[in-house]
């Protein structure tokens, strides 16, 4: 019998309960668990994970585009200092006509205005990645939002997510290619203008652009940036996230160093349910990863959770009443995802002897 449709959030919460039911496991909850469960149910009823991720992505994307315009954050190349929430943010090393800065004050200013904020930011980023992986990439990064947007358009128009995958047989190509390329160029131009406005006063830059009075330097910068970004959006996208982004790499290394970190795990005991499914989770992954593989195979996983939703849909369509086969796990269960390959390899090695 068909299951009634459910809000995705509630479905995600029920997955845990369903899993225990199907495996005849009894769950014992104490008061703290109960509080967590009630909070989760309320949260899920109000807002699902995917909605939460959309809100965080769109908000950060908007912040990225508008931070210089509203003086939230930018570097003023002419004045030679950062502007943070409308206030000049200098290292405080130079004397002004109002204040003479001695060496002790210079050291203190350098510590407070630069070294300490950088240390706090770096430590916080590494700790977050150590525990949750590339959570910044999947939940905030504007580049990953572009990856997802262009992937979706390519899939709709060309029947494949990247240029590097097999062509589908009967797809009309020319208009579709133009559409994808056009979107890449438009986004690349908007990004180039935004990046330039992080360095030059954005309002003056916008007026110059409007009146076609940009300086030669600004024109060259816009052309070069737009070309490079168009190339990235059209050809590279997730490949840049995988191999080109140093912040992404840093997060991945921090994540890999913690075997108990949150990771996508596959329930092998129910692997037979995948037989009727055409690897939908792998196909939906924007990073083109082997979702059911070991942790090392998911080195650049952005924790976007798209694969989880896909498997939910597959199981719902199959109407077999089973919860999805892949889930986020941490601690001991995460260690198992990490170690599986080693034990598997050893078994194979023993057999082959
Ligand atoms: S494996 Fe899943 S969570 Fe990780 S990037 Fe792919 S779709 Fe996102
Ligand atoms: S989407 Fe679910 S059922 Fe399909 S292959 Fe992936 S884990 Fe298996």
Task: Summarize the structure in words.
- This protein has 14 helices and five strands.
- It is mainly α and 353 residues long.
- The protein has three domains: 1-47, no CATH class; 58-90 and 133-244, no CATH class; 259-353, no CATH class.
- Strand 2 (81-84) and strand 3 form a beta hairpin.
- Helix 6 runs antiparallel to helix 7.
- It starts with 7 loop residues before the first helix and ends with a helix.
- The relative contact order is 0.10.
- One iron/sulfur cluster (SF4) is lined by residues 273-274, 277, 279-281, 292, 310-311, 314, 325-326.
Overall mean pLDDT score? 84
Report helical residue fraction.
Answer: 55-70%
Strand order of the largest sheet: 1-2-3
Bin the strand percentage: 5-15%
Structural class: mainly alpha
| Radius of gyration, CA atoms, in whole angstroms | 25 Å
Number of helices: 14
Q: Kindly report how far apart the N and C termini lie.
A: 50 Å
- Poorly predicted regions are 1-10, 341-347
Q: Can you write the helix and strand succession as a string?
A: HHHEEEHHHHHHHHEHHEH
Quaternary status of these chains?
Answer: single chain
Question: Biggest sheet: strands, sense, closure?
Answer: 3 strands, antiparallel
Number of domains: 3
In this entry the ligands are: iron/sulfur cluster
Number of strands: 5
Shape: globular
């Amino acid at each position: 019998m068909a299951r009634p449709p459910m809000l995705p959030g509630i479905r995600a919460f029920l997955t845990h309960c369903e899993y225990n039911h199907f495996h005849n496991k009894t769950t014992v909850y104490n008061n703290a668990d109960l509080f967590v469960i009630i909070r989760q149910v309320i949260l899920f009823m109000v807002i699902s994970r995917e909605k939460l991720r959309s809100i965080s992505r769109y908000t950060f994307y908007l912040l990225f585009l508008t931070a210089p315009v509203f003086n939230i954050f930018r570097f003023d190349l002419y004045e030679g200092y950062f502007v943070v929430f409308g206030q000049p943010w200098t290292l405080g090393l130079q004397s002004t006509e109002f204040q003479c800065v001695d060496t002790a004050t210079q050291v203190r200013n350098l510590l407070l205005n630069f070294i300490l904020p950088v240390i706090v930011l770096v430590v916080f980023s590494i700790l977050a990645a150590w525990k949750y992986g590339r959570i910044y990439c999947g939940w905030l990064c504007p580049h990953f939002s572009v990856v997802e947007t262009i992937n979706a358009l390519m899939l709709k128009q060309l029947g494949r997510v990247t240029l590097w995958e097999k062509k589908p047989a009967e797809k009309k190509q020319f208009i579709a290619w133009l559409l994808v390329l056009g979107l890449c160029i438009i986004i690349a131009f908007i990004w180039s203008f935004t990046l330039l406005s992080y360095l030059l006063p954005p309002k003056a830059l916008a007026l110059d652009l409007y009146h076609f009075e940009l300086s030669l330097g600004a024109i060259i910068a816009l052309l070069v940036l737009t070309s490079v970004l168009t190339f990235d959006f059209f050809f590279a996208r997730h490949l840049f996230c995988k191999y080109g982004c140093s912040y992404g790499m840093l997060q991945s290394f921090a994540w890999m160093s913690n075997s108990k970190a949150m990771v996508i795990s596959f329930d092998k005991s129910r692997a037979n349910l995948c037989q009727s499914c055409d690897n939908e989770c792998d196909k939906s992954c924007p990073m083109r990863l082997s979702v059911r593989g070991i942790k090392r195979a998911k080195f650049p996983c952005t924790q976007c959770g798209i694969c989880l939703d896909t498997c939910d849909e597959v199981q719902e369509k199959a109407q077999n009443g089973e919860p999805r086969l892949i889930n986020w796990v941490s601690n001991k269960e995460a260690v198992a995802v990490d170690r599986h390959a080693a034990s598997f390899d050893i078994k194979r090695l023993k057999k082959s002897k």
